[in-house]
Design a protein that fits this description.
13 strands, 7-stranded mixed beta sheet, alpha/beta, two-stranded antiparallel ribbon, 12 helices
Length: about 350
């Protein structure tokens, strides 16, 4: 390693497997950050500046006809989910999936994923690919990672994204998977949402859960078991500029989130050729623990009392999961989980 002007540059001689892992994580990161808008600009170019505009018109017509697919189970491809590049992505950190209980293929589940982190990187690795071997851990279960519906408004990108088994995080989408798509469905919901990314700091375990009760209501209406899931290490992948509540930066981020639909954290990781600055996540171990299912009895029209009771039960189970495993995966024994608004 060579240090110049405070920047730690990667050595020229790096083992081949580490180079491949860096390629894999670079591909994932740049797709996450730029592929959507890249596909949008490419589509505009084809439409307005080439003689092949008619192809894009045909695609856009089909895209309009196909507009509901992200709320109807998507269009997953098991072969894409099994690409070798996802295993290299998993090995980069490395990321590990830890199973504490069985999931019954004759039932459906909602997995609450915590914390959001900057990009929910481990959620993609574990649930939108076979990088960590989801189907081997839970045979007969099909995982669906739920993401913001805005992702599916980008031409071309939407189709690539759906190949991973990713679908829209809407009530309609969840109801389709839980009511009309049979059993063996594991819906992975990053409950804290976009705003929780603004709380993503190493060793700060602040989860925006106090008012997040929509998934609780759906679980009651459909009789779907809830599974608390915590990803230890997700918060260590990036460094974020401090933005305490009430600061100018946090107020600006809240305004942008309200109008853009996603939060704009100011962060950095490492680079391709240096370990100090860049957009690539740091090499930090990630251990994602899937907890014990919480059985839920179906209620046609759950009232506030029933929703609040199940919500409190879920938070207690999540806290127990965190406390049970935190020391095993590098978290200080004094660390506490905080539920915020």
């Amino acid at each position: 390693m060579v240090k110049i002007f405070g920047v730690d540059f990667a050595p020229l001689r790096v083992p081949y497997d580490r180079r491949i892992q860096t390629v894999a994580v670079t591909q994932y990161t740049f797709c996450f950050l730029f592929l959507g808008f890249g596909c949008l600009f490419f589509s505009i170019y084809i439409l307005f500046f080439t003689q092949y505009y008619y192809l894009m018109l045909l695609y856009l017509a089909w895209m309009y006809y196909d507009r509901d697919i992200a709320e109807r189970g998507g269009r997953r491809s098991d072969s894409v989910r099994r690409w070798k590049i996802w295993e290299h992505l998993k090995d980069y950190f490395p990321a590990k999936l830890i199973k504490t209980a069985e999931l019954d293929p004759e039932k459906n589940y909602i997995l609450g994923f915590h914390p959001h982190g900057i990009m929910s990187t481990s959620a993609f690795v574990h649930f939108a690919s076979e990088g960590s071997g989801w189907s081997k851990f839970f045979p007969g279960m099909t995982s669906y990672l739920l993401v913001l519906g805005g992702h599916f408004l980008f031409p071309l990108y939407r189709d690539y994204l759906m190949l991973s088994g990713t679908v829209a995080v809407t009530k309609r989408s969840m109801n389709f998977l839980l009511r009309e798509n049979g059993t063996g469905n594991a819906l992975v919901l990053v409950v804290g949402g976009a705003l929780e990314a603004l709380e993503a700091f190493p060793d700060r375990f602040n989860l925006k859960l106090n008012k997040r009760k929509g998934f609780i209501k759906i679980a009651l209406e459909t009789g779907t078991s809830l599974v608390p899931t915590f990803s230890f290490g997700e918060l260590n992948l990036y460094q974020q500029v401090d933005n305490p509540p009430g600061s100018f930066l946090r107020r600006l981020q809240n305004i942008l989130t309200r109008y853009l639909g996603f939060s704009p954290p100011v962060f950095h990781g490492r680079g391709v050729f240096n370990y100090t600055y860049g957009l690539i996540p740091y090499r930090q171990p990630i251990n994602t623990v899937i907890g014990t299912p919480i059985d839920v009895e179906m209620v046609d029209r759950p009232n506030h009392v029933q929703i609040n009771e199940l919500h409190a039960k879920y938070l207690a189970a999540l806290k127990e999961l965190f406390d049970t495993h935190k020391e095993k995966y590098g978290v200080d024994s004094a660390a506490e989980l905080h539920f915020i608004d």
